[in-house]
């Protein structure tokens, strides 16, 4: 009997170990299967001050880029799908949307990794990306500042809501780097029909963790 109990206990431990190793949510990488969109707007001065500084297109002196479109990402409430299809962007379509992203390479990368999960054709995905980007007004204080701007996370969100009263609560989130010292990007959440919606609790928690200091610095444009 003791041996039986020991065997059952060992099986229970093994089962709990296997269950604990399972992912919290299985990812579904089928095109069109997702909950909402996140539009990522990269803060170009921060990108160019770091690993992106060698980009001759985005980071050339005198470009004076502030917020630029990084991508439009299909999201789950937890996690996100990626690389959902094999369709490619034609050279004609690339030329049509060459100004949508700060660098031509980014257009192809974003479609392959994120856009392919939207369930849209490349033309429609890029058109939606342009529409949502153009719908958002950048607050005057953040539009190509010539001097660094220091703000709290709350002030950052408030400025966007003042400039865009139609935005839902918790629909614009700052994301910081360097231990929360510098703004890296803004993430703006939209429903699948393009209407503003609150970001997921996972996204809000990530923003709060990345921008965990009392305030952060937005580097000036160059």
UniProtKB/TrEMBL annotation:
Keywords: Signal. Residues 1-26 form the signal peptide. The keyword Signal applies. The keyword Signal applies. GO terms for molecular function: ribonuclease T2 activity; RNA binding. InterPro entries: RNase_T2-like (IPR001568), RNase_T2-like_sf (IPR036430), RNase_T2_His_AS_1 (IPR018188), RNase_T2_His_AS_2 (IPR033130). GO terms for biological process: RNA catabolic process. Pfam families: Ribonuclease_T2 (PF00445). Belongs to the RNase T2 family. This is Ribonuclease. The lineage of its organism: Bacteria, Pseudomonadati, Pseudomonadota, Betaproteobacteria, Burkholderiales.
């Amino acid at each position: 009997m003791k041996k039986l109990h020991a065997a059952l206990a060992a099986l229970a431990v093994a089962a709990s170990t296997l269950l604990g190793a399972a992912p919290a949510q299985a990812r579904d990488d089928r095109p069109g299967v997702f909950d909402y969109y996140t539009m990522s707007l990269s803060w170009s001065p921060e990108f160019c001050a770091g690993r992106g500084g060698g980009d001759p297109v985005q980071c050339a002196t005198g470009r004076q880029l502030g917020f630029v479109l990084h991508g439009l990402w299909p999201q789950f409430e937890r996690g996100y799908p990626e690389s959902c299809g094999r369709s490619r962007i034609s050279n004609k379509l690339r030329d049509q949307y060459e100004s949508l992203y700060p660098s031509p390479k980014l257009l192809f990368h974003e479609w392959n990794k994120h856009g392919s999960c939207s369930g849209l054709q490349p033309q429609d995905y890029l058109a939606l990306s342009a529409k949502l980007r153009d719908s958002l007004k950048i607050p005057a204080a953040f539009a190509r500042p010539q001097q660094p701007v220091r703000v709290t996370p709350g002030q950052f969100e408030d400025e966007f809501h003042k400039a865009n009263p139609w935005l839902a609560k918790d629909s614009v989130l700052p994301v910081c780097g360097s231990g929360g010292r510098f703004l890296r990007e803004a993430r703006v959440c939209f429903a699948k029909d393009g209407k503003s919606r609150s970001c997921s609790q996972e996204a809000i928690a990530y923003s709060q963790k990345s921008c965990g200091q009392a305030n952060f610095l937005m580097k000036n444009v160059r």
